[in-house]
């Protein structure tokens, strides 16, 4: 196991200056990208490396031609 619990890196914004928004690029074509869970871990590890934390996620589903949902 890792020494750091990755779940600890998902915290709400509190103005520490290292609040980061995680971005996952998802696809319905399974082989095109790594799994969302794998990407989550990659992002959390990257956040940890810069001393930051993740306040939320922006998931890009790569839906071509679809209008933005509001
Ligand atoms: Zn913060």
Describe this entry's structure for a reader:
It is a single chain. The protein has one domain. It has a two-stranded parallel sheet. The longest helix has 14 residues. It has one helix and two strands. With 70 residues, the chain is α+β, with helices and mostly antiparallel strands. 9% of the residues are buried.
Put the structure in a nutshell:
The chain is an alpha+beta fold and 70 residues long. The protein has one helix and two strands.
Q: Strands of the biggest beta sheet: in what spatial order? A: 1-2
Overall structural class, as computed from helix and strand content, comes to: alpha+beta
Helix and strand succession?
Answer: EHE
Main sheet? 2 strands, parallel
Number of strands: 2
Distance between the termini: 40 Å
Q: How many independent structural domains?
A: 1
Number of helices: 1
- Portion of residues in beta strands equals 15-25%
Name the bound molecules. zinc ion
Which descriptor suits the 3D outline?
flat
Helix content: 10-25%
Report the C-alpha radius of gyration, rounded. 14 Å
Mean pLDDT comes to 84
Low-confidence residue ranges: none
